[in-house]
Amino acid sequence: MTARSITIKDVAAAAGVGVATVSRVLSGSGSVSPRTRERVLAAARELDYRPSALGRSLKLQRTGAIGLLVPDVTDPFCAELVAGVLECAGSLAEHVIIDASRDDPAREAEIVDRLVEQRVDGIIALPTRGDAPHWATARRVGLSVAFVDHATRGADAVGAPAVLADDRAGVRSAVEYLVGLGHRRIGFLGGPAATPTGRLRADAFTETLRDLAVTPDSGLLVRARSSRDSAYAAAASLFQRRSDLTAVLAGSHLLGEAAVLVAREFDLRVPADVSIAMIGDVAWAELCDPPLTAVARPARDMGYRACELLLRDPNRAGDRARREGGRPVVLPTELIVRGSCGPPARTR
Amino acid sequence: MTARSITIKDVAAAAGVGVATVSRVLSGSGSVSPRTRERVLAAARELDYRPSALGRSLKLQRTGAIGLLVPDVTDPFCAELVAGVLECAGSLAEHVIIDASRDDPAREAEIVDRLVEQRVDGIIALPTRGDAPHWATARRVGLSVAFVDHATRGADAVGAPAVLADDRAGVRSAVEYLVGLGHRRIGFLGGPAATPTGRLRADAFTETLRDLAVTPDSGLLVRARSSRDSAYAAAASLFQRRSDLTAVLAGSHLLGEAAVLVAREFDLRVPADVSIAMIGDVAWAELCDPPLTAVARPARDMGYRACELLLRDPNRAGDRARREGGRPVVLPTELIVRGSCGPPARTR
DNA sequence: CTTGGAGTTGGAAACGTTTCCATATACGCT
DNA sequence: AGCGTATATGGAAACGTTTCCAACTCCAAG
């Protein structure tokens, strides 16, 4: 019951040396005679000694932990991101404390507070909004923060490094592709205008159309909140109102899902009746019939890079980011052409 | 630069009281006069004091952290599981240290070691194999462990509580459904025979067939390793060798994916030419054309329950599990009928 | 034989908490 | 007035490390 766990003292006693020596042997620093080293190692093995990270962290003022904050771990993009962070953290012998904000700034603030208490070495976040006050607070208490995806403004405000996908180019490539196929009335399903991502992608959409000399039609641009239901409703309303559209670009995989379901609901053949493409490549895109053309965003790399940025001399990273005005790392996207897009049925 | 972080001592000094009093105020235990309480609170606010979990954990010998170990966070089942754990942990004010074993026992052992060093309050694991030696070690150093999914034998061996989906019943329901539709030559795509899950599902498959008086045909049962490539190869070989089969049950969502792709590759219409069902419901099942019939496993609940089991008086839980011979918690599955199964084209 | 450095070693302080214990104060009784 | 009790408070120990610093041993050089 009262099995007091064994400490460095026990090992020292068993080996007949001082605790300092044990520490030196185990951490490999300092000089110890081979003879003592052997004795200590034997004692440690004998007792099945497990050093406590608590004691060490307290002394070293460094936990070897990083916080990871995403809206939702079940989202495929977030999951890939997490995998990337895990991969990098593992290779740098850091461990990862994860939590989900569920897109709720209040919850996010709480989590950040907890991570501060835990004295994590840094936080990687896909923030609800990067300019929320708790991020400034985190930086103020000396925590380094790295933002991932849709946080440009926040990174600026807080002076934290950021890793982004080149969504503007991603949207552009998809639109160019669709227009190249002959589409002129292209619907866009976008995220909430309140979020940086939602705004940016919609802007890139209209911008590209203008650049290609296609007059944008505001009735073809629909917004949804980030829930499944809202996405479905948005898609349904778009398809219903505008039976003249020949293609749809979904601004997220959730919206892409909605587009596919609604098209099926309306008995529209893809791509004969309507072409569909989406931002964000996910596993099911390949399984759809027809497989869905999508803009792949390098989620895993983004996580890896963010972690690297945070851990590889964190002060430097933060400082550099601030000095350079928070110029974020931007990773390229890639248009994955599959079978869901074709020439429009009725040109003009 | 040398911004030594402020401690309880600073607050005590600022408020003109002893550290003990500050601790009492902040932790809400013991008695303090309203006047002092106010002064302390003011000082803490003034200094923006953040208590250090390190000091507290060291003193309390309890970290408020649990370890979570899954093969792969990007797997939809694992992701849901993680979400469930996060939900429960959050409500109990615990934080979660996550890592991925990538199905590698050696890596798993390392991670467990790290978690032991971190002095987590417990570990939730979807283990590579529950009877691996490091699990016994973990228990020996006084760590409580809860297994999730395919770990029956491990739970027995280690005496840890386990949360399982009722896969046997799940497979049974799918097979009964297919046989009920008239299928007699049903292919089964199974996981590796080396894993408990792989064995159990395949066994349930043949068992059910026997119970339904359908003579099992060993040529219709194919194994794959857990990689995507291997799944595809297995599915391809099954479809190629046995053009006489009228239905396929995939033993995992990865194998289901393979079945769908191969069927499409072979120009088989679903469900006209071949019916497909799979174990494990995932988001894309609904997006397939036709949507895939699948056996839903309550991943999120499993995570939640496991966390609950671990945290709600962990000693008790472990002891009870041991006393009862490790009788695991078994959660029901549900057959979600969609459009991918129909009567066989050529009966007999 | 003395001196000095190199190589080993152990004691003790520090990291930031919580909590036990002792003390101090106030107050209501007898 | 004296006493007992309840409430408030602070000092100090403990949690498990790391590392500074001092001390000790050994041996070679003077």
Task: Please sum up the structure shown.
The structure is a homodimer of 348-residue chains. Chain A is an alpha/beta fold.
Describe this structure in words.
Two copies of one chain form a homodimer. Helix content of chain A is 47%, strand content 15%. Chain A is of the alpha/beta class and 348 residues long. In chain A, the strands form two sheets. In chain A, strands 2-1-3-4-5-11 form a six-stranded parallel beta sheet, with helices on both faces. In chain A, strands 7-6-8-9-10-12 form a six-stranded mixed beta sheet, sandwiched between helices. The first copy, chain A, is elongated. The N and C termini of chain A lie far apart (81 Å). The mean pLDDT of chain A is 91. Chains A and B meet through α4, α5, β2, α6 and α12 of A and α4, α5, β2, α6 and α12 of B. β2 (95-100) of chain A pairs antiparallel with β2 (95-100) of chain B, so a sheet runs across the interface. The first copy, chain A, binds a DNA duplex (30 and 30 nucleotides) through residues 5, 7-9, 12, 17-21, 23-24, 27, 29-33, 36, 51-61.
